[in-house]
Specification:
With about 950 residues, this protein is of the alpha/beta class. About 40% of the residues lie in helices and about 20% in strands. The chain has 30 helices and 32 strands. Strands 10-8-9-6-5-13 form a 6-stranded mixed β-sheet, with helices on one face. The protein has a 4-stranded antiparallel β-sheet with strand order 4-3-14-16. A hairpin with a 2-residue loop joins β8 (about 245-255) and β9 (about 255-265). α23 (about 685-705) packs across α27 (about 795-820). The longest helix is centred in the C-terminal third of the chain and has 29 residues, at about 640-665. The protein is elongated and about 125 Å long. It starts with 9 loop residues before the first helix and ends with a strand. It binds zinc ion (2 copies).
């Protein structure tokens, strides 16, 4: 076999391996070679079909490959099939832009749903080929060919089945609740879609306004209410106070006489700048039931309903404002209190965010425009006490960027409140990594979760599978077959508008029942992935326990409230169980300036360029070895990425090169059985084997515990120790000048065994480099078809400790020797090594057997160990030189110079030379001939080396 290049180009080598894997179907073999009845399963979160991968998607793709490779080597079959997310607002927005649509109404009125949906299908038809390039080049094995799409009829039928299960268990209801609403997309948005990304909250400059509401039965007395949303002051059918809170009445002199204001006692600061006198104190409950004069009274009060009175609200606090709150139908708590008190509900905004036409003064205005107009009107009427600039963080549409508001929606909801006790219980069975998310962010977000609005007043999605009759009866099919039977129609496509044309006969009254117009939130589809990707339960070839709950999922922190949450909700609602066994939460990779990565900021290096420059393995080691794998955010660093090449790739490469170079010269035949550790009486070999055993044990437990950061650090430390101690101290054991053939053979047996096992351990994390070297050394098909090394019950940790102590002694020796200013190649008679008592060698034979290594390393003839009470390691050299020592020193210096010349001529270990030198010690002639592979040695004016 050709030798490994000494100047490797890692990205090029990775291209070669990629081509090799594809040509020889190594991925497919790695699955088929494992038993079908012993599986390890993982669930992939499908990316949006037309997007481009970014660092975040690459980050989560890497553990999605590391762990499948690991479990495959452990003997499990790991299915890996790609998926594409197709539905939802991202596609609709793109199509709207393409068709020049600016209002949702135009979709139905100008374009037609049919054409709109055809355009959506067209838009997601072209699968992004870019993904495959990135995924290949970060070394992720996944089947793109059989990728599923959330728009496939099979997938959508499973979603329909899931809805039916939840509906039958009464976890889904239709009702009026308040949720976030996008006036541009004209649809409710779920709170966790917005919460996923902190960038969806933007600071907005508004006014904090203090309004006056005149009491009906008290002269010149006003309740003060503070608000930051003037637009919904157009409709204030009630005010709320906290019945437990203390309020005060204050008297204020005005131009025309005096006025009385009522506000919470602790909020008097709001009257800053106004002269007042407190005239009365009263508890909130005394205010409840009082009537006030409305600012606007254009709406009618339905029979049995009330308006313009003060009601009690426990949620009212005196933390901000006046302790008196204006109520409107546009708040969840407001709506609840209004329902309880039978307060008239008025909706004055249309579904595009405009004030309804019939509203006097403001009709037709965009709701935010009405803010200014309303305050001007009330100011002129003396009903606005003051307005002050106020900046608050407001949610914006994650898709179109429009500022959102809360609005009551007659929509479909999942009854999260009823599910909560089971959601908490089932979370107990999940292994979270890092563990703090379990009781932290995940539990907290579940505790705070409102009911989940799952319907969207949109077009491109799975339909809400409910047919309603005027008589109130509903039909909810659980399959296409159910629907075909009920309608007598053949169902070709579950998308709108086709599905809207399917009519069923009402079971109760016999009239026609039509489907409700909404489609499902695409998060229902994301949460259904476990089942729908297998077309469960319609696919008879697979059982639930074959894939559910999956062993593993991974995504970034933003998905805690989103994907992880919806998966957990659906699995709890369907089977009262957890949705995944192990979940890894990564942090976020931020731009070089610590901000979110953004093309506009230009704050990150192009990932494709980086991969082409440094390769996929280096990216894997960089990211898997970083705290981002423990849920912490990191700043992208090209330096750390590049550094992997130096500390990992090149160190590993060079020690394998060392093995290869000498093995070619020595041509030693040795036992290449790598299943059992070879026996050696050389302490270096014995130590390296123990070190490997420890690494096998630790890496196995790291990867079983989903801790890649620890695993990468240990692999890197291992090659560093191998290079800096084992290889360095073994140089004299190999090559032409090494005389002990038995020791030479032991070196090869040991080193080969260790390298091969190390490459198996590094294979999941650095699959390209590991396979390149493994195949080179063994001639096997691929390291990824091999088994994971067996762990050892007993690891001789004393030997590891003792060798650490010995290395500390040597380091102290090097430091102290440097201070003597004598050349390193000058042998010295003796060194006394001082060792702190706390580092006493466990096993004296370890020290005895390492003694020659210590003496060689420090270039001394003898060595004495002294245990001292001090803290630090130290060394004292005897620097007196005898004639013999001087001769030996000069000879070694000569060897160094000649070897430099040999290197300049690119001579290999086996090449012999004729040598000319200015002088040498006759007594050392035999040594020089052998050491330098010279056939003759003569005196001349300067060193000359001639290859023979
Ligand atoms: Zn929007
Ligand atoms: Zn009916």
């Amino acid at each position: 076999m050709a030798q490994l290049p000494s100047q490797p180009n890692f990205p090029e080598l990775e291209e070669e391996i990629l081509a090799y894997w594809k040509k020889n179907k190594i991925f497919e073999q790695s699955i088929e070679n494992r038993p079908a009845d012993k599986t390890w399963t993982f669930l992939d979160g499908p990316p949006f079909i037309t997007g481009l991968p970014h660092y975040g998607s690459l980050l989560s793709s890497i553990p999605k490959d590391v762990f499948p490779r690991f479990w495959t080597m452990k003997g499990y079959r790991v299915r890996r099939v790609w998926g594409w997310d197709c539905h939802g607002l991202p596609a609709e927005n793109k199509v709207e832009n393409k068709l020049g649509i600016t209002r949702k109404k135009d979709i139905e009125e100008k374009i037609g749903i049919k054409k709109f949906i055809d355009e959506c299908k067209l838009y997601v038809k072209d699968v992004s080929g870019e993904w495959e390039w990135y995924i290949d080049h970060v070394g992720r094995w996944v089947d793109f060919q059989h990728a599923y799409k959330t728009m496939d009829t099979d997938y959508m039928e499973s979603v329909m089945w899931i809805f039916k299960q939840m509906y039958d268990k009464e976890y889904i209801y239709k009702g009026m609740r308040v949720s976030l609403y996008c006036p541009h997309c004209s649809t409710p948005i779920s709170n966790f879609e917005v919460a996923m990304d902190a960038d969806n909250y933007k600071d907005v400059k508004d006014f904090g306004s203090t309004y006056k509401y005149k009491l009906k039965d008290e002269e010149d007395t006003y309740l003060l209410a503070w608000s930051t949303t003037p637009w919904n002051k157009i409709v204030t059918p009630a005010l709320a106070v906290n019945p437990e809170l203390d309020y005060v009445k204050v008297k204020v002199d005005t131009d025309t006489g005096s006025e009385n204001y009522i506000l919470a006692k602790t909020t008097l600061g709001i009257l800053d700048g106004i002269k007042y006198k407190v005239t009365d104190t009263l508890r909130g409950d005394k205010l409840v039931g009082k009537a006030f004069e409305p600012h606007y009274d254009f709406y009618t009060i339905d029979e049995g309903m009330k308006a313009w009175i003060v009601v009690a609200g426990d949620f009212v606090t005196a933390d901000e404002g006046t302790g008196i709150v204006t109520l409107a139908a546009y708040g969840e708590e407001d709506l609840k209190v209004m329902k309880e008190n039978k307060i008239q509900r008025v909706l004055h905004i249309d579904d595009e965010g405009h004030i309804k036409k019939d509203v006097p003064l403001f009709g037709g205005m965009y709701y935010l425009k009405a803010n200014k107009a309303l305050n001007e009107d009330l100011m002129s009427r003396g009903l606005l006490l003051k307005e002050e600039p106020y900046t608050h963080s407001m949610p914006h549409c994650w898709r179109c960027g429009t500022q959102l508001y809360y609005a009551p929606q007659d929509a479909w909801y999942v009854d999260i409140q009823r599910l909560k006790p089971q959601l908490f219980k089932n979370n107990e069975d999940v292994h979270w990594f890092p563990s703090h998310f379990k009781k932290g962010r995940f539990l907290k977000s579940m505790e705070a979760a409102p009911d989940w609005c799952i319907s969207r007043s949109r077009y491109w999605g799975s339909p809400v599978p409910v047919w309603e009759c005027d008589c109130g009866e509903r039909f909810v099919p659980g399959s296409i077959d159910d629907l075909e039977k009920a309608s007598g129609q053949k169902i070709e496509d579950l998308h709108r508008p086709d599905i809207d044309n399917v009519i069923v006969k009402c079971m109760k009254c016999g009239k026609d029942a039509h489907r409700v117009p909404e489609v499902l939130d695409s998060w229902i589809e994301a949460g259904s992935a476990s089942f729908a990707e297998h077309h469960f339960p319609f696919n008879q070839s697979i059982k639930l326990e074959d894939f559910f709950p999956p062993d593993f999922i991974v995504e970034y922190t933003g998905q805690i409230r989103a994907w992880f949450y919806v998966l957990h909700v659906l699995s709890t609602a369907l089977f009262d169980t957890h949705a995944f066994q192990n979940v890894v939460v990564t942090g976020v990779i931020l731009g070089t300036d610590g901000r979110k990565m953004s093309k506009n900021f230009g704050n990150y290096p192009d990932p494709k360029m980086m991969i082409n420059k440094y390769g996929g393995d280096a990216l894997r080691l960089y990211l898997m070895g970083s705290p981002v794998m423990r849920g912490e955010d990191i700043v992208i660093s090209e330096e750390e990425y590049r550094n992997q090449i130096k500390v990992f790739h090149l160190t590993l490469w060079n020690i394998v090169k060392f093995y290869e170079l000498f093995n070619d010269v020595d041509a030693v035949v040795f036992d290449k059985n790598v299943l059992h550790a070879p026996q050696s009486d050389n302490i270096l070999d014995e130590w390296l084997i123990v070190l490997l055993q420890k690494l096998i044990n630790e890496l196995t437990s790291d990867l079983e515990g989903y801790d890649t950061m620890s695993a990468v650090n240990k692999l890197t430390a291992f090659i560093d120790e191998t290079s800096k101690w084992y290889v360095r101290r073994s140089r004299d054991r190999v090559g032409a000048t090494a005389e002990d053939d038995s020791d030479k053979k032991k070196f090869y047996e040991t080193f080969y065994y260790v390298l091969i096992n190390f490459l198996k351990l590094s294979a999941p994390l650095a699959p390209f480099l590991s396979d390149t070297l493994y195949r080179h050394l063994t001639g096997a098909t691929s390291v990824h078809l091999e088994s994971w090394p067996e762990i050892s019950e007993n690891v001789d940790s004393n030997l590891i400790d003792d060798m650490n102590t010995i290395r500390k002694m040597v380091e102290a020796g090097h430091r102290s020797r440097k201070e003597t200013k004598l050349k390193v190649r000058q042998p010295l008679a003796k060194v006394t090594l001082q060792v702190p008592k706390s580092f006493v060698i466990h096993n004296a034979s370890h020290l005895d057997r390492a003694m020659s290594a210590i003496q060689d390393e420090l270039n001394v003839k003898s060595c004495v160990i002294e245990y001292l009470d001090q803290e630090n390691f130290g060394a004292i050299f005897d620097v007196s030189l005898t004639e013999d020592l001087i001769i030996e020193g000069e000879t070694r210096e000569l060897v160094r110079l000649v070897q430099g010349e040999r290197r300049k001529l690119n001579l290999t270990q086996g090449d012999t030379i004729a040598l000319i030198v200015p002088s040498f010690h006759e007594s050392m002639k035999a040594y020089l001939l052998k050491k330098l592979a010279a056939t003759s040695i003569e005196i001349g004016p300067k060193i000359e080396v001639k290859k023979i």
